[in-house]
Amino acid sequence: MATYSHSKLSTFENCPLRYRYKYVDRIKVEPEAIGIEAYLGSRVHDALEWLYNHVKMSSTPEKEALLDYYAKDWEKKWGEGVKIVHKEYEEKDYRNVGATCLTDYYDHYSPFNDSTVVSLEQRILVKLSDGSFVQGYIDRLALKGAAEFEIHDYKTSGSLPAQEKLDSDRQLALYQLGVQKQWPDSKKVDLVWHYLRFNKELRSNRDARQLEQLEQKTIGAIRAVEAAEKENDFNPKKSELCQWCEYQNICPLWKHVLSVELLSVNEYKKDGGVKLVNELAQLSSEKKALDERLDRVKEALSDYARKNNLEVITGNDYQAKVSFLESIKLPAKSSPQTLEIRSILEKAGLWDDYCCLDAAKLARELGELPKPVQQKLSKYASTEESARVTLAKKRDE
Ligand code: SF4
CATH for 3-231? Predict the structure, then answer.
């Protein structure tokens, strides 16, 4: 059985094609591409791991030592693969964000003695009821008292999620399953998120029923991935996340867009794709203008026919046939009268037949409804005349 993780499943949910590139085709990107937001997150995680390793050994470092570790680590690991998407910011802006996160965290939690560190970056492997495995790494597992665990997770994202979102979060709840299987005597497990940019701690809990539901939902997510793998069905899903996708330059949604950006003006003009799209755009715009002209001529012809009481109007080689149709219209679904119409239909036991309030169908079949219903609905009905103009080649007489 394959082993999954929250991030692997999220990759599939966010974009099946990225999942294929990453986990099925295992395409390596050189140099290893990483968005600066992810780089910032990794450096802050490293610094907090370093801090708590010292806390564990009862040698809590000073804040300055923590910041010094962070700055040196940032410098040492920085590479050309780090990608800055928001060009209005520079590397130092992101580095400063991380330093502020760490400063606030240190001031908030120092001397870090409200719980005992059990482990840092601990791998958790959970066997689900269908036999599949889910793994993950807990940033920090802490113990309060004898049997109360806390699963801590550090976030450096620039947005603060609503409590509701955290109460249905999959990642830490899966870790809870693992912790409870490892320590069945645990009395309580708290899920704790540190949203470092906001110096904010958010918490959530899961009871046994919620964990059971989570397990079933996770099995469902795994089944969806397996079905896609079996059918080799991995469609691209365009979203904000494309900006940080390491496969943008091979993705069918972006490959051409990115490749022509690198061309000179002359090369750009000669590109086959660019030429075809420009031609299509030009033709579409001409077609739209022609369609509008055609509608105006048809309208003029129907006016001419009405005024002169004609049904056929002749030209050189073609004849136009104009027919006038009368149809009944009822108010559209969005109209305020909808509720009144619904009530009439419900009382007549006809609501099921028109439950989507298909005004066009109802208008078409109005004449077939029982007389009392017709009478009640008739005040909402109006008659509309439309003209149909068709063109046919003249036949030789
Ligand atoms: S660029 Fe966007 S659509 Fe393409 S693979 Fe990446 S995430 Fe998916």
Answer: 3.90.320
